[in-house]
Design brief:
This protein has helices spanning 59-156, 171-182, 200-209, 219-222; strands at residues 16-20, 36-40, 187-188, 197-198, 227-229, 239-242, 250-256, 259-265, 269-274, 282-285. By secondary structure, the chain is an alpha+beta fold. Helix 1 runs antiparallel to helix 2 (171-182) and helix 2 packs across helix 3.
Amino acid sequence: MSHTAHIPSHRKPRQRASKSALRAGVAGGVLSTIAVAGAAGPAQAEPVTQTIEMPTITSGFSTAVAASAQATQQVALDLETQADEDAAAEKAAKTAKKAHAEAVRKAEAKKKAEAAAKAKAEAEAEAEAKERAERASRTSERTTLSTSSGSSGSSDSGSSASAPSSSNVSGSAASIVAFAKAQVGDAYSLGSTGPNSWDCSSLVQAAYRTAGIDLPRVSQSQSTFGTQVSLDNLQAGDILYWGGAGSAYHVAIYVGGGQFVGAQNSSTGTVQRSLDYDRPTGAVRVL
């Protein structure tokens, strides 16, 4: 063994100075190269070269990403458009349904109105025809009674012997009674004076006018126009009144046989009734 074998070496370790250079470049799919060089000592350099492969970024990748984003956006727009179209269709359907229901309602209302108008026209025509017939009948009756009354007045010269047997009246009384009876069936209307609608006092006034006698217009005055007579001693043509003399609220004409004719009210119109139907308060005799 050498006597120097256990003597540590005093040789300084070799010092290495490293120098690195990095060059990188990416162009059209070319690999990047990194060069690393190391040199030891001031006088000697030992170059070391290592190649590292880097992932390649191509222009096709960015294009694909952009296309994918555009496609996603287009799908979203298509879905939104479809939703709008569905909502519009639903709204249109509801509007159409509502319009149809309204059209049906109006058609039914129009049909009912036409039916009601037709029924009303028919009723009015029937009522008018009936009224014309009644007027014609009353006119005929008035003419007959007037002729009969005139003939009776001429032949009887004031005597009651030739008075019509049905009413047992003659002269002016016959004319008054005939007129009053001819108005039976006419309407009642407060303030009316004929020829087809009366109130109680206007009917009495008009009846007396046929005999050439002018009566006051209202019931109160008519109830005192003449001589007060008992209800047990009535004669055809006497004026009946209800209420007090001078304050009567209703009048009528006694036509004989225990009957009177009067324009009663809007419900009954002009009627001929028994005295027992509505007993009067008193009576006056004008003739």
